[in-house]
Protein 1
Amino acid sequence: MPESPALLLHICCAPCGGGCVNRPEMIAPGREVALFYSNSNLDSQEEFDKRLAPVKFLAEYYHLPLIVDPYDHQAWLAAVKGLENEPECGRRCLKCFKFNLARTAAAAGNMAFATTLTVSPRKSSRAIFEIAGQWENFEKLDFKKKDGYLTGCRFARKHGFYRQNYCGCEFSRREAELKHKEK
């Protein structure tokens, strides 16, 4: 799909977004980008707000409009029902990607959209692209390439962003806490 002059970029957190928003494909002349913060997978409103604050800074820093999708954890829990005990990067995560991408697609309408989820080395860009294949207006941008993750980490450290140690849901938090105890 050729690049559209307008793009809605799903953003999960500022550390990930920091490795995406300043890329040449994002700041091309005539390219209008808006951020879409959609994180109903987060385990609490408090966590949602903690991650939103640096996203707001990122949007202001790059002069990008920011749309905040209302937090609806109950809808997310319904979407992943039955997969609560799946390991991180398992089938629950695929459902989570689909949930967030569907909300982004709905917000994008006919405009192109992409996701910062592809910057994480812990997430399969191929799996994200397969899920997003159901929407013709999804733009396959793999932000892992060209040190996207490292760039985002540096930007987050430079600006003192909150950096979480789990993906966001209560199930990934539980798994992260168990791993931490084992160390």
Protein 2
Amino acid sequence: MAASDLKDLGVHTEMYVDAYLEMFKAGKITGARKNIDRYKQVYSFAMGSQELYDFLDDNPGLASYSVDYTNNPVVIAQIDNFVSINACIEIDLFGQVCAETVGTRHISGTGGQLDFVEGAYKSKGGQSFICLPSTIELKGQVTSRIKPILSPGAIVTDPRTATHMIVTEYGLVNLKGKSTWERAEALVSIAHPDFRDELIAEAGKMNIWRRSNKIDSAIINF
């Protein structure tokens, strides 16, 4: 981001990290276009280098708020063109996202993911991105992170009604406003090719698969 051609970026985040400092030093962050807290970089807590902490100390260009403000989807949605980027562990063909557990084994807390997913979803021009590798290797076996249904015991972090942009190394799909079968078709298109036939077969068993020519146009390749 610091090396991109973006400009006049604004910051409203739960955790402030060194990447924001690098973007600020590169002149990318001004906050000039924020609808609220204009010219302020808003955050709840910070984690990073000593340089980062020195930058934050007594800096009038930053504002640290409690999470009931920074993570409030109503507040986030007031910022036009808001972009949130989150990771997850797995997603099913209905668009349900798990970012907390592998089955019943806890990996992470919920954090502010759903807050920022919903806030960006409802922002005018906003986009919420959920990013994940298409596969994972467990005990020497490679499996798909895109699954027909979530693993037994997996926690739903983001409901399908809130999921928006889903990204793997095979492309990006927009699930906003999609029907169940359109979601399945889109997600299969960005799954690892080795698992697509299996996902299609399982989707067929669940009656959420309609073979169409849209599978080619649903994907945006990188």
Protein 3
Amino acid sequence: MSKEGTRSEQIAMAKANYERAEAVVAELREGARQEDLAAARATVDAAKADRDRARAALRETRITAPIKGLVEALDVSPGDLIKPGPVVRLVDPDDLELTVYVSAGYLGQVRVGQQVRFTTDAFGEETFEATIVHIATQGEFTPRNLQTEEERIQQAFAVKLDLDSAGGKLRSGMTATVSLKAPDTP
């Protein structure tokens, strides 16, 4: 074997290994081929799209509220499929609204911005304050024909009052009795 020298198969393998090593060195010197770069970019873009789809799917599994508040009604259970739109009724305990109905005869005694006092059944004679923020322009509970004075008295107008929770005492759904006095009366 020492007289014959290295076998031809070993020479061919060594030559092939040498040529592979040269190709690797050449690729490192020249950088990756454009086709390889394009394929790598496509793989990265596909991975980013998969990530974005997963994030969107995760966002759709959560119910988020636009404000902080107390859940007053929740009509879904875990695992329910729900349509887009509100599924929970929230109440901001510090931002309450009260609607009262004022007879047409007293409508001249109220104005937007006026402070009024009211009591609740839950707190007896303790009084609270609210501010008139809206007076309806059309009457409600209106009979068909308002020709006589007796019939016009039956017409009522919605008046919305803005109030705070008085430190958590007042809650959504409580009943109240409002005392309306003329704006220039104490």
